[in-house]
Write a structure and sequence with these properties.
N-(1-d-carboxylethyl)-l-norvaline Dehydrogenase, domain 2, 7 strands, 5-stranded mixed beta sheet, Rossmann fold, 17 helices, alpha/beta, 368 residues
Length: 368
C-alpha cells in the first residue's frame, strides 16, 4: 500500500520521501514501483523517459528526520493503534506545524490516532484502496479535531491525483469496510450452515448479482488474515454488535496461514493443476443466497445513511468505486423493492432470533 501511494504521488509530479523501519524494505518498495512502471511501459501507457522521471522523484529516507520538509505525510503501517500513535508523536516532532499528517488506516479511529499529537487538528484519515495507483476511490475522514481548511486542502490534492473522494464520519470501518461486512460475514454464515458450498455462493453472487468477484474469491484476493483483522476490529469498536461478528471459519484460515492468493491457498487452492470445486448452478438456491446477502448489505447502507456516516451520494459512490459493486446499494434496494428486502430480513430475524438480522429504522420507514 505504501509503495502504491508513493508511486501515485510521484506520478502526479510530487517529490516523495519513502521510509520503512525495516532495513531494506524501502529499497524493495522502489523496485516494486520500478517493476510496475516497466509494465506500464510495455502496455504503452508511459514511455521510458516518464518511468525515469517518476523514479527520480522518489527518495529513500534514512530516518523519520527526512520528513522535515514534507507538506503531507501519509502513514501506512500495521493496523495497531499504539504503533500508529507512537509514529505520529515522532512525526509531529519532526515536521513543520503546517504539515498535514494523514493515516491510511482502514478501520482504526482517526480521532484516537490524532490524540497522540498536540496539534491534533492537522491529523486526518486518507484511506486508499489497494492497489492505490489503480483503485479510483479515496475515503477522507476528519477526526473530531481536524482542521476544516486542511481537510479541504487534502481533498482537493487527492482529487488532483485523479481520485474520486468521499467523506466519511470517524466511525469503525468508515464507509466501505463497515457497509461491506455482510458481503463476507453472511456468505460465510451460509457456508457454515451447509446451505451452499462457498464456490456455489461465489457463483450465485456473480451470476445473479453481477458482481465481478464472489465473497470467497474476494477474501482470498484481499487476504484472509487482513479480512479477519478488519472484521474483528470493526466488531470490537462497534461494542461487539452481532452484525459484525467474525466467524470461526475466518479465524481458522487465518491461524492456518491460508491467506489466499498470496500464500497459494485459502478457500480455493491456487497451486498448479489443483482441482477446483464443482458447481451445482442451482438457480433457485442461488437466488435465495443472493437475496439474503444483498438484503444484509442494503440494510447496512441504510444504517450508515441513518447515522449520517456519509451522504447518500458518497455512500453510493464508495461502494461502486471502492469495492466495484455493480450498483449503489440504496438504488439497488429500490430496484429489488424495499418491502422485499425488509421481508427477507424479518424472515431471517424470525427464524434465528438474532440481532444480527434486525432491520434498521430507516429501512423500515422507507419500505413503509
Amino acid at each position: 500500500m505504501g509503495s502504491g501511494i508513493a508511486q501515485l504521488a510521484a506520478t502526479s509530479g510530487h517529490n516523495v520521501v519513502l521510509y520503512d523501519s525495516f532495513t531494506g524494505a524501502s529499497a524493495k518498495a522502489v523496485e516494486r514501483i520500478r517493476t510496475t512502471l516497466e509494465g506500464l511501459v510495455k502496455k504503452g501507457k508511459i514511455n521510458e523517459a516518464g518511468l525515469n522521471t517518476i523514479l527520480s522523484k522518489i527518495k529513500v529516507a534514512n530516518s523519520l528526520n527526512d520528513f522535515a520538509p514534507c507538506g503531507l505525510v501519509i502513514e501506512a503501517v500495521i493496523e495497531e493503534l499504539e504503533i500508529k500513535k507512537d509514529l505520529f508523536r515522532k512525526l509531529e516532532a519532526v515536521c513543520e506545524p503546517s504539515a498535514i499528517l494523514a493515516t491510511n488506516t482502514s478501520s482504526i479511529s482517526v480521532t484516537s490516532i490524532a490524540a497522540a499529537c498536540k496539534g491534533s487538528g492537522r491529523v486526518m484519515g486518507v484511506h486508499f484502496f489497494n492497489p492505490a495507483p489503480v483503485m479510483p476511490l479515496v475515503e477522507i475522514i476528519p477526526g473530531l479535531a481536524t482542521d476544516n481548511a486542511m481537510l479541504k486542502e487534502v481533498t482537493e490534492l487527492i482529487q488532483s491525483w485523479g481520485k474520486t473522494t468521499v467523506q466519511a464520519k470517524d466511525t469503525p470501518g468508515f464507509i466501505v469496510n463497515r457497509v461491506a461486512r455482510p458481503f463476507y460475514g453472511e456468505a460465510i454464515r451460509i457456508y457454515e450452515e451447509g446451505i451452499a458450498h462457498y464456490a456455489d455462493i461465489d457463483w450465485a453472487i456473480k451470476e445473479i448479482g453481477g458482481f465481478r468477484m464472489g465473497p470467497f474469491e474476494l477474501m482470498d484476493f484481499i487476504g484472509n488474515d487482513v479480512n479477519y483483522m478488519v472484521t474483528e476490529t470493526v466488531w470490537k469498536q462497534m461494542f461487539f454488535d452481532p452484525r459484525y461478528k467474525p466467524s470461526i471459519t475466518q479465524k481458522r484460515l487465518s491461524e492456518a496461514g491460508y491467506f489466499g492468493r498470496k500464500t497459494g491457498k485459502g478457500y480455493y487452492d491456487y497451486s498448479e493443476n489443483a482441482a477446483q470445486p464443482e458447481l451445482s448452478k442451482d438457480m433457485e438456491s442461488g437466488k435465495q443466497v443472493f437475496m439474503r446477502i444483498i438484503s444484509m448489505l442494503i440494510n447496512e447502507a441504510y444504517e450508515a445513511l441513518y447515522y449520517k456516516i456519509a451522504t447518500r451520494e458518497d455512500l453510493e459512490t464508495a461502494m461502486t468505486k471502492g469495492v466495484n459493486y455493480p450498483k449503489g446499494l440504496l438504488a439497488w434496494g429500490n430496484e429489488l423493492g424495499l418491502k422485499n428486502v425488509l421481508n427477507t430480513l424479518e424472515n431471517l430475524y424470525e427464524t434465528y432470533k438474532e440481532e444480527r438480522y434486525r432491520p434498521g429504522l430507516l429501512l423500515k420507514q422507507s419500505a413503509k
